[in-house]
């Protein structure tokens, strides 16, 4: 015990307050602290170490996951020159034995080659290295809002010489006041970046309804148009100020009815020049040439008159023999530039010739004599014919009385207000096939430029879930798949608006354009099924053309 502060050093006070001698008390000294190891803590620490949430140190050992040494195992061979020489020395050819072997098998090999040569197993087979596109897609929906605000309809379509620009004419096929109604010709360049489907690249204002348009076959900027007034106009789309470069004006030679079709014809007198052909329901087929001053002058003309067709085809109330028969459509042979087919209001299709010399008895004040071109009349539709199209594939050799032969167009299509498509041969009056595609009008039919057995038809009626509906449609008919029903019907849009026109693109061959009465143009991308010719398709076309009707 430590001494009290008031006690002298060396003495201490006892517990009972008595004073004891120093020897009997504890001596003053510093003693080291005693340490007693806790068995409890040691045991608990051991238990915590065994059952702790944190693991103890993990020992790792290098087990040669990555090798310490590398060795060339010749993954890529690299022979030495000596090895190559050794290999070449080892190759020895016994040419005598080889010759003996070839002589022994010669007859057997030639026999098999001849057998394969006569085999027809791979007839028509062509390797296709392009990607297959199995769906038909709508790439563009084009329109001109100002024309739609006037309730104008798409009356005609045409692709230019490059296949990149599409021209559309706006007007009316259901009548209208041609003297006051304004209309338009619009173009879209589908290859241009930033294409605006509702803003055409070019808009031409026309004072009369435009019934048809046609791009020049080699000059991409020239467009010809036929008007409701009977006039013809040619525009140059490269001129932004005044695109009109030629026109017929209103003369005695001008059509007196709407012009429903225009075509560019090669000029036989001037190489690389073209003349313009027009077709009208006044019964006249006129050929025009350009003159100085921007005038189109009549070069030659034809008139389809009642004396050349059955009486039932006459629609003009004139004396029989001098009555004009309204012409609605025309298609030239792809093999004979003198032969063409026309469709007339009376429901007939006529085979005609540019070389005809018979004068027409049609009384007109024409500046050139008109000739009667019809040579053969085909079995009629149940109403006016609206469109005809000659096959670009089929032709036939006909012997002439002189002993020579000539190629002739054989197959063509026609359609009309009876909803039927007729497949005709020019060698007989009855159709080879009559296809009821619609209960409504068929306004246009076009033979495919790629597939001999494929054509497209523009209708006022489509097919909705395998049942007829009133929405206009484009029917793709493939004779290789069926002779009775379309392979595919493309719905043009909502509402009861017919499709008036359809055009294949002969340059960008997967594109198909269709225009309707709602003022809308749709550009479709066709699948490979509709653009690639089958191995025996030409043979099937020959079989179809060879059929005869009793």
Automatic annotation (TrEMBL):
Query: Which InterPro entries does the UniProt entry name for this protein?
Result: Dynein_IC (IPR050687), WD40/YVTN_repeat-like_dom_sf (IPR015943), WD40_repeat_dom_sf (IPR036322), WD40_rpt (IPR001680)
Q: Does the keyword 4Fe-4S apply?
A: no
Q: Which residues form a coiled coil?
A: none
GO BP? intraciliary transport
Q: Where in the cell is it found?
A: Cytoplasm
Molecular function in Gene Ontology: dynein heavy chain binding; dynein light chain binding
Q: SMART domains in the record, alphabetically?
A: WD40
Which residues are the signal sequence here? Answer: none
Per the record, GO CC terms?
ciliary plasm; cytoplasmic dynein complex
Species: Rostratula benghalensis (greater painted-snipe)
Q: Where are the transmembrane segments?
A: none
Which keywords has UniProt assigned to this entry? Cytoplasm, Repeat, WD repeat
* Family annotation (Pfam families): WD40 (PF00400)
Q: What is this protein called?
A: WDR34 protein
Q: What is its main location?
A: cytoplasm
